[in-house]
Amino acid sequence: MENDKNLTVLITGAGSGMGLHTAQTLALLGYKVFAGVRDPQGRNAHKSTRLLEPVESQGKSMEIVDLDILLEDSCEQAAKTIIDKEGSIDVVIHNAAHLFIGYSEAFKPEQIASSFNTNVLGAHRLNRAVLPYMRKEGNGLILYVGSGITNVTAPFMAPYVLGKAALDALAENTAYEIGQFGVESTILMPGVYMDDTSHFDTAEFPADETVLKAYDRLQKDYDHYEDGLRNLFRFGDAPIQSVAEKIAEILALPAGERPLRTTVDYSDWVAEPGNGVREALTERAFKILGYSHLLKIKK
Question: Which domains does the chain have, with CATH numbers?
């Protein structure tokens, strides 16, 4: 995969928040961006318009692709559409996610399953649709928008934390294997972002009302949640655009030199030390196992 702006990029959840900013930023930089949106000509037509207008006004272009990561057929069709048009898929950005807020016990099992379906299985479905093309070409980049909460967990959002932790595990385990075909992986771990994202507006809450009533003693802590998160911003607010700029920075690196993990964090969450420990322990274990070569991209 050449280090140039002709790369073909597919991004999920591009209709709002980090996905929207990333799609627009990469398109304005000249990348061939395919922005994944569910039903982009129907109920989400307004999202398509919002995506396209700032890009086209600058004389650049972007394609909107109908993509529902909950459906295997949709993932396969999106991949085929891009291959038929461009001949390759160079970068996939797994950005789509869904937030859950509330007491763990009060979430019904099907809500936990729903979080896994969106926050991890959706990425796996799309990987299965695009990796055959990438493996055949012997290059490519899978970039996962993960979270710093996989190193330092947070209260009152168990389904989301579980989903992001599973996504992180999927990304790392998959990386060891596809790297032997020349396909890179990067796990981007944003810190706390509270503004200009649809996460909190569309968050899902516990469905078991009976259990909720039993947690009255934690209501003060729960009510303090947003203020507590904002206390983390000791150095200024977190601009959502910083995620898009970090992704652009990663894409601009030469093929084979992109990090497995990196962070973008304006809060005092601080996930980096955990990453350093994890990397050192992984290298040690893989050396003992005789798998050190799996930690390197095979060109």
Answer: 8-295 (3.40.50.720)
Overall average pLDDT of the 292-298 stretch: 95
CA distance 22 to 144: 13
Q: What is the mean pLDDT of the chain?
A: 93
Residue type, 245: E
Q: What predicted TM-score, i.e. pTM, was given to this entire model? A: 0.94
Q: Are 162 and 235 in contact (CB under 8 A)?
A: no
pLDDT score recorded for residue 2: 44
| Cα 29 off chain centre by | 20
Determine which of 1-5, 14-18, 79-83, 151-155 has the lowest per-residue pLDDT on average. Answer: 1-5
Residues 166-185: b if buried by 16+ CB within 10 A, e if exposed:
bbbebbbebbbebbebbbbb
Q: What is the pLDDT of residues 237-264, one digit of tens each?
A: 788 899 999 999 999 999 999 999 999 9
Rounded Cα distance, 78 and 86, in Å: 12
pLDDT higher than threshold 60 for residue 3? no
R_g over Cα of the chain = 19
